[in-house]
Every structure is written in C-alpha cells, then in structure tokens.
C-alpha cells in the first residue's frame, strides 16, 4: 500500500465514530455532516442513534454502522440477534458485534462460533458483520483462534477493539489478524487511532477499514483525540 494514500481514497477507509455515552443529537448531526463532507465509508453510532443517522444520511451513500453487545460482548445470543435486527430495521448497514471474550477464554469455542454465526445469519443480505475481538484482552493464540472462528461462522470482518477496553489497534495485531483470516475477509483497526502515519501503517499491514473519532483530523494530516 502506497504511503501516498490520501484524499477520497483515504477517507473511504473510515468509520467515523461517536460512541460516547454522553453523545447528543447535535453531536450525531455533526458527525453525519462531517461524514458527508469528507466521504467517509460510514458513521458508527450507538443503536439509539441509528434512526437519526439514517435520516441525516439518506441518499448520500454514507453507510451506518452500529455496535451490538457493546462494549462487553457478554449478553446472550438472543439479545444480540434482537438488537441487530432492530438496528438493521432502523437503517443500519453494518453491524459491529462484540465477541464473547469470556467464553473464548474459557475454551467454549463452539458457543462463541454459534454466537457469531447467529449474527451472521441475521445480517445476511442486509448488513455487513464485523466482529470486535477486544485484542487487548487476548493472547496471540486467542486472537488467531477468534479469527478462525469468525471466518467459519460467516462474519465479513474482524475488528481489533471497542475503544473501551485495554489497548487498541497495533500494526502487529493487524498483521496477525490479516494472516489469520487471509484475503477473503475485511480487517478493521480501531481503538486509539489518531494520526495519519498510524493509519497508513495499519493499512499497509492489512487493515481494510479504520474506526476512529479523529477521522476529520487524520484525513487532514493532523492528530486528533478520542476513540
């Protein structure tokens, strides 16, 4: 990937994100306006704000990502599926679900796969499914195992972090995840992504989507703060 990646080609990598619990309607309107102006792939908002974002972005080509089982991933599969179906009906085009980290670390791999597969089936033909691994809580072996599970279960992407857990996106983890899933799946880097140099390094390592709240600053060549 060229280090000269910039402009519209760079902006198209971003899920422009606002997931703070104190996010307001005016903040969502601003987020959507920035996404339209810059040509970001999607906005990423909490489920409550999906209908508002859908209204703001109608006809623009900017997608709407929302988060499911967020930020812990420890809700039941039934609840995750219901949440995802409601979000899709409200206008979400991409679903970022949180993997059940505790189940994974307990060796309950079949349960984790069933959880992801149920979401993949709920999203099929209606929305892309990204699975948040929360890599800061996992060993490298667990990251590889999680990636294999997500691939078998039919997810479209694996994703590094919620932004609410320890750590965030690193070049090392993106390279590991890309190797684990191969070329068929997307890999989303999120958590602590705040400057253009980091974004280019993550893309070079295999990221095909970037989640950031500092998207506007980053595509402008600056450094931002936040998720």
General description of the model:
The chain has a single domain, classed as TIM Barrel (Alpha-Beta Barrel), CATH 3.20.20.70. Helix content is 44%, strand content 16%. It contains ten helices and eight strands. The protein has an eight-stranded parallel β-barrel with strand order 1-2-3-4-5-6-7-8, surrounded by seven helices. Helix 4 (77-89) links the parallel strand 3 (63-68) and strand 4. Helix 2 runs parallel beside helix 3. The radius of gyration is 16 Å and the shape is globular. It starts with 6 loop residues before the first helix and ends in an 8-residue tail after the last helix.
The poorly predicted ranges are none
Taken together, the total number of domains comes to: 1
User: Class in CATH?
Assistant: Alpha Beta
Q: Strand order of the main beta sheet, please? A: 1-2-3-4-5-6-7-8
Largest sheet: 8 strands, parallel, barrel
**Mass-distribution shape:** globular
The name of the CATH architecture is: Alpha-Beta Barrel
Span of the ends, CA to CA: 24 Å
Estimated radius of gyration? 16 Å
Q: Roughly what fraction of the amino acids lie in strands?
A: 15-25%
**How many beta-strand elements?**
8
Q: Please name the fourth-level CATH homologous superfamily.
A: Aldolase class I
Specify the number of helices.
Answer: 10
Helix percentage:
40-55%
Rounded mean pLDDT is 95
Order of helices and strands: HEHEHEHEHHEHEHEHEH
Classification by helices and strands? alpha/beta
CATH fold name, please?
Answer: TIM Barrel
């Amino acid at each position: 990937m060229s280090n000269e990646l910039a402009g519209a080609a760079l902006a198209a990598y971003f899920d422009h994100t606002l997931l703070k619990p104190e996010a307001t309607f005016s903040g969502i309107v601003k987020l959507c306006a920035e996404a339209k102006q810059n040509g970001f792939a999607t906005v990423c908002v909490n489920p409550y704000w999906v209908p508002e974002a859908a209204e703001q972005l109608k006809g623009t080509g900017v997608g709407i990502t929302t988060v499911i089982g967020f930020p812990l991933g420890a809700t039941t599969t039934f609840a995750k599926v219901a949440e995802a179906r409601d979000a899709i009906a409200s206008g979400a085009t991409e679903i970022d679900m949180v993997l059940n980290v505790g189940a994974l670390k307990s060796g309950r791999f079949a349960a984790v796969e069933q959880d992801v597969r149920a979401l993949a089936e709920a999203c099929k033909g209606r929305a892309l499914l990204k699975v948040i691994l929360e890599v800061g809580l996992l060993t490298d072996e667990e990251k590889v195992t999680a990636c294999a599970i997500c691939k078998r279960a039919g997810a479209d992407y694996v994703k590094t972090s919620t932004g609410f857990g320890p750590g965030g996106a690193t070049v090392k983890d993106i390279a590991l995840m890309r190797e684990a899933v191969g070329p068929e799946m997307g890999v989303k880097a999120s958590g602590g992504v705040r400057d253009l140099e980091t974004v280019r390094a993550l893309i070079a390592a295999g990221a095909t989507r970037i989640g950031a709240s500092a998207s506007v600053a980053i595509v402008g060549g600056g450094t931002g703060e936040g998720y």
